[in-house]
Fold each of these.
Amino acid sequence: MTTKNSSFARRHAVASRPVVEDDFPDSSVVGLIYVLDSFVEDRAINDWTTICKEALRTTRRYRDTLPGKELETKDLVLSILKAYDWFMVFTFCERIYSVVLKPVGHKEQVGFDQEWVEDEDISSVRRRFQDEINTLMDEDGFSYEMVDGVFVRPGLHHTRKSLERANKVLGNPVLRESLIHYNKARRFFRSLKDRDYENSVKEAVQALEACAKSLFPDVKAKDLNEFSSRMRGTGEHSIPPAIAEGIKKLYAFRGSASGVAHGGANGGIVTAEVAELVLSLSASYITYLAAMDAARSMEADV
């Protein structure tokens, strides 16, 4: 993950730490405490008692039942977060974003009354909090980032670019079915709570298949494999043989990979890296087919 706030160590590859996937290390919890403290200091969070209550709510515990209940509130929050299952820390951060942050302002004397004057609205506070959290994610090597208050696994830079191009293509109403499948694929890949790499692969390839059938109905192919065979050729409006084979092999992987479409076990395990590759390839192929269709339509118009 590379963001505009990417740290020096990440930008220049001088940090050899592994990518943090299913964990929230104690050192990162300490960093989170500093982030929270800064928001308490500038009054974007009421106080540490408010934070502690949210931490207890996430664990469904009472303070009196915890070891270390006599600790200062900030230290108790640190203790609670370190004892969390890793995914609960992410849930806690999302709750801070959605329900704990508040606008920053002050009271001014107007005649005999005091009026509230807002210095920073809630949207700005939330953006600032999200920026701080994403900086922490980047510095500590997490594979997640916060987007609109929710953690997602964004993928590598080139994957995001492929997805952006595919999104523009899938805005075509003709490709509505393909868009539905592709959005499912992205959700299965990116979601922290519902992450499912096998279904991400299945939906990404189905999105490509739906795209091919929608843009080239005259080919009358029953599946992506048959479509690739019929479109294979060296002509101007054919798919070059090597590229057609690539599409066929992607479809074959969907059918043979462990736990994807047909319960195959000979195609290999679907890891995060594999799922991301399939997402990126499917996006690129969708963009390619749309460009082919546009060129064919332009020639027909002329």
Amino acid sequence: MDEHPEKSLNSRLHEYLLETAQTASEAMKPAVEAQKDLTKTVISLASATLVFTITFASSFIGPSIPLYWRYAVLACWLAFICSLVLAILSLYFSLELGTFPARVLIDNKRIDAAIDEIASRRPFDMKPLEDIMQSHLRALGKTQTTATRLHKAALVSFAIGLLIFTIIGIYRLLSL
């Protein structure tokens, strides 16, 4: 017979909470990883394109180029910079998602209070732990939504910069 049934219950409830957090985290992992990979690609491409266009700016915006084309190049650069900032922020929020199980378990005071409440009731009611998990899942959902929105905004900004750069390139080719 178990000498410390409360400790055993406490241990089992902590395991239940950890398993639930890991299950939720694992379910989101493929989508989060794909988003992070694409975001890293956008960061690489936007950085390279920005450096490339700034390095060779004199070859496609000379003194004979109308002022509106210069503004177009500036808009292109701003779009790439915006894309970089948004992609880095998206990556930051995506990385936060990987810490979900740990963030749930760090909530010791609430977890211990919930376990005490569960242990004091007969029959056992898991609602206090489920409430803790739901609050963390809501926070996780908000973080994921923020990361996804930033990711999409980074893609749109990159596409705008690329479109502007393409138009400038076509203009320069046709004016040769």
Amino acid sequence: MDLIGAAVTEFTREAQQQLRDPSNFSWTTVTLIALVSYVYSVEVERRNYSAILAGLSLWLMDWINEVANALVLHFTDRAAIWTATGDTSYQLLIGLNLEISLMFLVAGIVFVKSLPPDPKQKLLGLPNRAVFVLGFSVFSVAVEELLHTTGYFDWEYWWWNSYSPPLIVLFGYATFYAVAAWVYDMTDRSRQIKVVAALAAIDIALIGVFGFLLGWV
């Protein structure tokens, strides 16, 4: 018996079976892409480039996390930190499907458009950006909890599950929203573009090395 294969969890096997399988394609994907495109086109029309760049920065941050998550599966031969299962039109990585990725493309714009105009304004005596980052992060983890109860989102390790939400809040979402707020509040457009370009370069390097070159993700 293959001891390494035997250690792999059942939900991991389920996700691996549909990993980058084009036969799962659904026409609903076309509608989702159109809706995401509409969200961005509205911001382009309004010349709200800070929101666009903030949205892209959150999405690119998620890709860094997703590659790292896939590497955990590679090195443990058991499970990633989180695993996405269930019906999807395309499973991009072990913990990321196309629907989740499109959601993150919009999430950053939703977040920054919810922020108070003045970054220095206090809420409950605290910096409003910190309050919104925490609030959106907690809400996002609550959604993950719901997905987990439905069996479409799986956690394996004791330090990253329903009993240890602070880690998920901090490293699963707060970093995303914090970077989006940081980029959004920058007054220098060239600096915003440089940050987004740097994140994109990191993603390309990670996927190129660990995906195409080594085949680990």
